[in-house]
């Protein structure tokens, strides 16, 4: 599964003082098509974590994989393949840490290391190019505010209906609908006003995968 892997050796995990690091993302590695042992439902694990700036812009990706035959290894090319190669993507399924622990134990790995130890296996970092965010209109701020910012974030895949339902509940989307948006939300905090809209770029097109678009609008009152 690993392309140009770097075999891992534990190193001290680096975290910011007084800041709890976010939980990692876990994936199950499925057998290759035509695997001689069809009873093997899961062949290994992949663990990932994005590195982000203070404003949550992603600047890189760390990952580590494990199989019974190879142990832990790290591969930046695998992180890229998970997002660019359909054959690799088809063999990886998102999962929870609890489920990953069960499969790790069943495959003979014993107790899955805690996340501080798993981070020590991240040896092949994949940088993500960054640039200053586009300032999208309308530029005129609402009454009583001195600045308006609009961010548009494109996602590669559509959400499942139950995920949209959960998002609508979390954002407290009105039951009477949101027009062109699949979900929307509004929040006022620390003298700032935020609103979110989730829209499908190619909504209703049966032959193409719809990519959700989240529009976040932030307006700040004068200090």
Global Rg: 21 Å
Average of per-residue pLDDT values? 76
Major pleated sheet? 7 strands, antiparallel
Could you give the distance between the termini? 53 Å
Uncertain parts: 2-19, 203-223
What is the count of helical runs?
5
| Oligomer description | single chain
* Pattern of helices and strands: EEEEEHHEHHEEHEEE
| Estimated structural class | alpha+beta
Overall, the morphology is elongated
Percent range of helical residues: 10-25%
- Strand content range: 25-35%
Q: How many beta-strand elements?
A: 11
Give a description of the structure.
By secondary structure, the protein is an alpha+beta fold. The chain has helices at residues 76-84, 86-89, 97-106, 115-119, 161-171, and strands spanning 6-7, 25-29, 44-52, 58-67, 71-74, 92-95, 126-127, 147-154, 183-189, 192-200, 212-220. Strands 1, 2, 3, 4, 5, 6 and 7 form a seven-stranded antiparallel β-sheet that branches. 18% of the residues are buried. Mean pLDDT is 76; it is low at 2-19 and 203-223.
How is the topology of this model organized?
Elements: E1 6-7, E2 25-29, E3 44-52, E4 58-67, E5 71-74, H1 76-84, H2 86-89, E6 92-95, H3 97-106, H4 115-119, E7 126-127, E8 147-154, H5 161-171, E9 183-189, E10 192-200, E11 212-220
Antiparallel strand pairs: 1-5, 2-3, 2-6, 3-4, 4-5, 4-7, 8-11, 9-10, 10-11
